[in-house]
Amino acid sequence: MDKAVTFALAKGRLANKAVELLEGQGIDCGVLREQGRRLVFDGPDGCRFLLVKPSDVPTYVDHGVADVGVVGKDTLMEENRPLYEMLDLGFGACRLCVAGRPGTSLNDRHLRVATKYPRIAAEVFAQRGSTIEIIRLNGSVELGPLVGLSDVILDIVESGATLKANGLCVLEEICPVSARLVVNRVSLKTKESAIRPLVEGLRAALKEERKEK
Amino acid sequence: MRFLLPDLVGDTLSGELSLRRALEGEIREEFSLWGFDEVLPAGLDLYDNYAFGSGARDQRDLLKSFDSQGRILALRPEFTAPLARLAATRLRDETPPLRLCYLGSAYRNPAEASAQKRAEFTQAGVELMGENDPRADAEVILLALRCLEKAGLPDCVLELGQVQFFQGLMEEAGLDAPAIQELRPLAEQKNSLAIELLLRERGLSGRVLERLMELPMLFGGGEVLERARRLSGSRRCMEALDNLEQVYGILCRSGWKDRVSIDLGLVRGLGYYTGVVFRGLAAGFGQPLLSGGRYDDLLAEYGRPMPATGFALGIEHLLSALKAQGAQEPEPSLDVLYAPLDEPMEETLKRCEQMRSKGLRVELYYAKDKEEAERRARSRGAQKLILGGEVAKTNG
């Protein structure tokens, strides 16, 4: 049986940082630098890379067509799949927040919440005992409160600049998020000889990095 | 008119079905060879039977209906609870140990996103009730391994854990039930970071914290037991490791060393496991194929306290894993196509019966003439074409 590892990487910023980390562990990711429309990249040492939409990374890893994935914690929380979430890679750090116009109360009424994360929103507000209406959007969520589509938004906030530029502010911080290394539950065992050293190597490298800071 | 199916179910056609039936036959035979008696509990049960005690299911998982008295009914989501009920009711006079097995459909409402999304699926499994000897754990695990071997799965692993080791670590750390409840899924996800955050929040630090954070990486071969022994001196942990070592030792000495591994982070979602737990994994298929373990307290909740262990195997998962590892569906084969033409029917039936009694598969086709019969014989891939009243003619 093939013991080479298949990686699912979230397209975009996270992929570049992930490549840096993997190369630090001696995995040749040169093929990923080729520009073009390819979606599957075969590395020289048998590794394979899939570049997919961030929210699809947990799906690929859960089904086992990718063994290892790199994806944001926000996406993992929203997808809520049974994966091994083995490392916090540290990059892509931001906060999951409820935001709205300054002074908006989160408690006293039926809230309309615009978000890309309907599952997280349902859970967060259920824990608070609030009843909400979720309005699912796929981008520019900040527009919601501005045009009266929603009372608040639930989204990831990095610097807060977009919120500020639109007259919004963070009303409540839910949790910090960052990129995570996820592993399929079966692959960790059936490809242990390849995946275990990778996880341990990355863990040591991340520890080193934190010390330097 | 369009004929739709409900979500997440599917029909099975003959090619796939013959592969499945052959597999089910092998598994049934193996269960029987080990002295397990097959039972079939009611498929439609009262909801209350699944909604109590340590085996209680989230009601969102169950497919429900009502009976004429307004009671809530549920399609069985699995077999362990109904078999526990049987052991405590209709089988209460049977002297333990009870060796029961089953093979049948189960139903769940797959609420959350998951690769194992199916509303109707087939489970085969065993329950060994009334034995708490580690040899009984090993027996059930060996039976699971034999089933995978008989199924012809070349590349698979069975991972073993012991939930008392986790419980012992929790006890040592002085964590209360709600904290354990919160920690269990994090351990199951091997999420060391979240474990660390949760424990720090609870005021833990130093050695205790380091120990618990090692848990996710405590997997591999027999050396894991040694690593784990260095982690904790608690009696509960030691007993758990000794127990696991006994079971693991039997499996290794029986020639299965390459097929078993240890994962002490395997703590299982369901709360009723009390000892050695295990999961079967196949390379190239992302989901566990089978899972099981020891549940010594469950039967007491049904009023018949006795220790027990068992496993359930997902037939559809096994089939998918076999396909992922290159298994082929058998081609349907027809031995004889028999076209009676103008032969009297009673004569035809007599000749067909003779062939069938020899185990040949014979299909009747009421063709108008020889050419039509030949076309049909070719399209059905029949080994032989026989025309009524004539001498047999070989086709291909």
Describe this structure in words.
Chain A is built from eight helices and eleven strands. Chain A is of the alpha/beta class and 213 residues long. In chain A, strands 2-3-1-4-11-5 form a six-stranded mixed β-sheet, sandwiched between helices. Chain A is elongated. With 396 residues, chain B is of the alpha+beta class. In chain B, the strands form three sheets. Chain B has a nine-stranded mixed β-sheet with strand order 1-5-6-12-11-10-7-9-8, with helices on both faces. A four-stranded mixed β-sheet of chain B has the order 14-13-15-16, sandwiched between helices. In chain B, strand 15 (382-387) and strand 16 form a beta hairpin. In chain B, helix 4 packs antiparallel against helix 9 (235-256). The radius of gyration of chain B is 27 Å and the shape is elongated. The chains are: A alpha/beta (213), B alpha+beta (396). The interface between A and B is medium-sized, with 31 and 30 residues.
Which features characterize this protein?
heterodimer; A: 213 residues; alpha/beta; D-Maltodextrin-Binding Protein, domain 2; 2 domains; six-stranded mixed sheet; five-stranded mixed sheet; 8 helices; 11 strands; 34% helix; elongated; B: 396 residues; alpha+beta; BirA Bifunctional Protein, domain 2; 13 helices; disordered C terminus
